[in-house]
Write the structure tokens for this entry.
Amino acid sequence: MSSSLNPPFPEAAGEPPASLASRAPGTASARPEAETATSPDPAGPGPGEEPEPAHREGGTRGYRAVFRVVEFRYVFVAHLMSLLGVVVCEIALTVVVYRLTGSPLLSALTFALGFLPYLVGGTLLAGVADKYPARRVLVVCDLVCAACAAAMVVPAVPVAALLVLRCCIAAISPVFNGTRTATLADILGDGDLFVLGRSLLRIVAQSAVLTGFGLGGLLLAVVPPRAVLALTACTFLGSALLLRFGTKRRAARDADSGALLRSSLAGARQVFADRRLRVLMLLFWVPPMFSVAPEVLATPYADDIGIGPAGLGLLMCALPVGTIAGELYAGSVLGPAARSRIALPLAAVILLPFLAYVLTPGLGWALLVLVVSGAGNAYTLGVDRWFIEAVPDELRGRAMTLLHAGLMTIQGVGMALAGLAAEFFAVSTVVAGAGAIGTLCCLLLVAQARRTAGGPKSETGLTAM
């Protein structure tokens, strides 16, 4: 709440892997919010002020331009503030459950429950993202999550209730993330600044994976687990305050969409009925489904090649490090046109390095393979732009909610399949197989993406296929 393993809490799933050619149809929106995305004043306007028009396509590049937008700074700090808290909470809750039950299965289930409710929440509650004003949705989601985290602190709460609270937070996560992503387009416009803003949130999420678990281990050495859970409640409250007072109120995108469940399901049907949107969404989902294989199987692979805990830690970090490096390079050095040109080629080969696992590489070569594969996640910057341009404004919140929900769900499926395959085949064979099958799937998607690029828009705003 990337395509490496996404933390299953609301802030930490940033944004897909995530603890992911030719330009797509559609042009940048002419909405006032998109045209006034940045301010020429380095200090920027206050939260209640309208920024002066400064950014145009082909204008200032790089991440610094995104931070000139005052509202984005509030969103970014709220994201950063709660990320470390929720990742640390993940460890603490697992420890609490294990100490209460002594069951490794229930302890592992605590982690897995962060993934399972995503599909339900993202499908049945997606309509919230468009039916109500975005700021209200974000603040209420944070407050509900804060209440759930605070309830976990109470010593009398039984294990079953802890797992239910965990599921509640996870079910809310896709709504929060989808609404926030849709709001980024209002704050930054749906051009290059949006792409860079999304990239920054993903980079922060990947960095939290690298630092949060280490920080959680240090905290648990000196602080009781339930006190660490209290920290998460505070971070949710802090995020709610930043979003409430640091972002502007905007009207609901589709307030007349009818009953919540009907609106959510209708939005899902609209998204998946459009061939272009369906292909782009699968481009976000499919590479992460296969790229989790070397991470989830890192422990048995480390045992196979005879490396210790330090080597295991490096294996776990390699893919996120590659992802961060790739996104930073693409966002800082390449322009919008270059990012679009490399998106489909990178998506086609991102999983190809995994084939080297067939040779059972040692630690050094395995790290190189994972870093190179992770760097390929720079393809998401190009696909981000195409996706936001292809989605009608009134459907944007629901589409983004489905995108996040599917990303987390598909990674959970990938983990389960990798673990199941490793019961019958060597770990190196499983990872190499994931690379081969995943590359084939990516090549098919890339071919479909090329076929669906271009073409007139339909009256509903969806690309006509």
Notes: The radius of gyration is 21 Å. Confidence is low (pLDDT under 50) at residues 1-60, 455-465.
